[in-house]
Description:
alpha+beta; 4 strands
Amino acid sequence: MLAGHVARAHPSVEVVVGDAAQLRQLLADQGVSEVDAVLSGLPWSLFSPDGQREILSSIAGVLRPGAAFSTFAYVHALPLGGARRFRALLDEVFDEVLTTRTVWRNLPPAVSYVCRRPR
């Protein structure tokens, strides 16, 4: 498991495993109420609309002013309904959503979304 590998490879890093929809509680359990950044590699297009909304709401709720949320999407999946729905949801949840240029050297190629200022 990735969390176990990170914990072993970087013993000074505190690794927390849990449900992303419960991010606020996971952080509170660690004595943290706000964060400067959230970086996600979740497979967004595979989540239901309610699941996407629940997780994004959780993320937006812990970002301090000026903080950013970043995630990525594979270019080949962008036309899929779940990916299009997710991109539209980002615009609903965040005031600013920047899409990077395609990273062709990534396999598979991907774009990143950098989101700021939860609505």
